[in-house]
Design goal:
- The structure holds two protein chains of two kinds.
- Chain A contains ten helices and five strands, in the order ββαααααββαααααβ.
- Chain A has one domain.
- In chain A, a hairpin with a 4-residue loop joins strand 3 and strand 4.
- The two termini of chain A are 23 Å apart.
- By secondary structure, chain A is mainly alpha-helical.
- In chain A, helix 7 packs antiparallel against helix 8.
- Helix content of chain A is 70%, strand content 7%.
- A two-stranded antiparallel ribbon of chain A has the order 1-2.
- By secondary structure, chain B is of the alpha+beta class.
- In chain B, strand 5 and strand 6 form a beta hairpin.
- The chains are: A mainly alpha, B alpha+beta.
- At the A-B interface, strand 1, helix 3, helix 8, helix 9 and strand 5 of A face strand 5, strand 6, helix 5, helix 6 and helix 7 of B.
- Strand 5 of chain A pairs antiparallel with strand 5 of chain B, so a sheet runs across the interface.
């Protein structure tokens, strides 16, 4: 069955869309990742224009993180103050990202920029995940292995404008969280991701936040930044495709529910390696497309359309 | 000289007495949710007052043209190892869809002059902008436009696809692919003799998005803020709603 996408102005197979949403939802349920970083490139592969894929991907992030953030708010595992600072940074970053996105679209380079950022980020994240899961596998075999120290004070925490973050038990400058927020906001706008894959490690290693509030706080920031970015894309370049989003969301929600249950039964360390390999494969495929001599050197763009 | 003119008139007069009448199997196409493309049958007849003129062959050309739009054609080149869009060429207006079907190869039945006045062949349906002075090889860009759209099924030139029976009845099928845009599609039917157009008939195919798709598209472009809020509301509704449903099922 084909679905006509009113904004992308093309038809795609409904089951392919549900499959993409469901598959990524399955992974996100199993590993607790948002999955936006997989949805957007998969949409490129099935022929959705990159600009539409990015804007719709970020809309899908809202759907996949909303119930999580509500649950965390209820359990009071959100550092609201930290969340607000990260969010403020995120909104600034999103504005910068949207401006950059629209500029690149006018210059005809947006496809390249989106693809390049995916190659770099997926490549780095995949490699880190691969290394981390290998280490976790080894650690699981050796119970006497040293644990890493989590909270280290470094110079950036001592910048001016210090602020008390009670829920996280931190007294640090607002600049590090603000800058982390800006970075994540830019990624959300340009890549159509939530940015949790950057935010969570940054909160743990850079800001030194305790793990019990990390997930809730990052979901809080991601949800609102994604919502803002969706609005910004809809208003500035009309590239959010509601029809596409609905299919991705439906597939994603079902996949995530199955994934959560599957994740409880399976061995996480080995699966994590598989996820790392998958992320590396997607990065490799996009890199290959950029490096390999294309069969068609020309492409057409229609001003004001995708 | 005068005698020659009279003979010429006598030869050409019966030809002018031929008229084309045509119809379409449908003149509305609706781009619904499950639109997978559509096939339109274009048929018609040649009406003539006198006897069938002899000595020249009758030709029929059917051209269907989607709404013209400006386009930018990009050419990639290798920069620092990766393929990047480097050069571009603007086309003032190119039909978003163009299908031309004929009883015989175009160059056999259509003279270059007639092609120029009626803009029938694909190449002439595209209006290039006055090319930038620094552009290398501007024709290559237009050729690429045609090639890419032919691959997507948006441009079709099908010699011999018009079936002409006893010099009177003709019919052809035009395939509209799934990736067409909405708008008014002009269907032109030309009757030719000796390379010249002797009669022309024009009708319109209305291609429209179906109600919901049209509403969404218009909302996105005319009320983008409202559209954005709708997108968010749907995301919240489905994201939160679906997990609430799953919680209910589990408990």
């Amino acid at each position: 069955m084909q679905v006509y996408l009113p904004i992308a102005e093309t038809s795609v197979n409904a089951f392919t869309l549900l499959g993409v949403g469901g598959g990524v939802g399955l992974l996100s349920g199993m590993f607790g990742v948002g999955g936006g970083f997989l949805i957007t490139p998969l949409l490129f592969f099935i022929g959705v224009p990159p600009a539409v894929a990015v804007a719709t991907g970020v809309n899908q992030v809202v759907a996949s993180s909303i119930s999580g953030v509500l649950a965390h708010l209820k359990r009071k595992t959100v550092d609201l103050r930290m969340g607000m600072v990260l969010l403020a940074g995120g909104l600034i970053g999103s504005v910068i990202g949207i401006w950059f996105f629209n500029l690149m679209q006018r210059l005809g380079q947006i496809d390249l920029i989106v693809q390049l950022s995916y190659v770099i980020f997926l490549g780095v994240i995949g490699a880190l995940m691969f290394q981390e899961s290998l280490r976790a596998l080894l650690r699981a075999r050796d119970p006497n292995a040293r644990r890493r120290k989590l909270h280290v004070h470094i110079w950036i925490h001592n910048l001016p404008l210090k602020m008390k973050f009670r829920a996280s038990g931190l007294y640090i400058s607002v600049f590090p969280p603000l800058l982390v927020g800006v970075g994540v906001g830019i990624l959300a706008a340009v890549m159509g991701v939530g940015g949790g894959f950057i935010l969570v490690p940054a909160m743990i290693y850079l800001l030194g936040m305790p793990t019990k509030v990390v997930i809730g706080t990052s979901l809080f920031q991601v949800t609102f930044v994604a919502a803002f970015t969706t609005m910004a894309h809809a208003i500035t370049n009309q590239s959010v495709d509601v029809m596409l989003a609905i299919f991705l969301i439906l597939g994603g929600v079902i996949g995530a529910q199955l994934g959560t249950r599957l994740g409880l039964r399976l061995r996480a360390e080995q699966l994590r390696i598989l996820l790392a390999v998958l992320v590396l494969a997607v990065s490799g495929k996009i890199a290959f497309d950029l490096l390999w001599t294309p069969s068609e050197l020309y492409s057409i763009s229609i001003p004001g359309r995708f | 000289m005068r005698v020659l003119l009279v003979i010429l008139l006598l030869v050409t007069l019966p030809a002018r007495a031929e008229e084309v009448i045509a119809g379409l199997s449908q003149n509305r196409v609706s781009l619904t949710v499950n639109f997978e493309g559509s096939e339109i049958l274009i048929y018609g007849a040649v009406r003539r007052d006198g006897p069938l003129p002899e000595g020249s062959e009758l030709g029929v050309i059917v051209a269907v043209e989607g709404p013209p739009m400006p386009a930018i054609i990009w050419r990639k080149a290798r920069r620092a190892g990766i393929w990047v869009n480097t050069e571009s060429q603007v086309v003032r207006a190119a039909p978003s869809f163009y299908a031309v079907a004929s009883t015989a190869p175009l160059h056999q039945i259509l003279s270059p002059d007639a092609d120029l006045t009626h803009r029938i062949s694909t190449r002439l349906a595209i209006f290039e902008a006055r090319s930038a002075p620094d552009a290398r090889d501007p024709a290559a860009f237009t050729e690429a436009l045609i090639r890419i759209r032919e691959d997507e099924g948006l441009y079709q030139s099908r010699d011999g696809a018009v079936d002409l029976q006893r010099d009177t009845l003709f019919s052809t099928r035009i395939t509209l692919p799934k990736n067409i845009v909405e708008g008014r599609y002009a269907a032109r039917i030309f009757l030719l003799r000796d390379g010249d157009v002797i009669d022309e008939y024009e009708t319109v195919i209305d291609v429209q998005k179906a109600v919901l798709e049209r509403w969404l598209f218009n909302l996105a472009y005319q009320q983008p803020a409202l559209y954005g809020l709708l997108a968010l509301a749907l995301a919240v509704f489905f994201g939160w709603g679906a997990s609430a449903v799953f919680r209910l099922i589990r408990s």
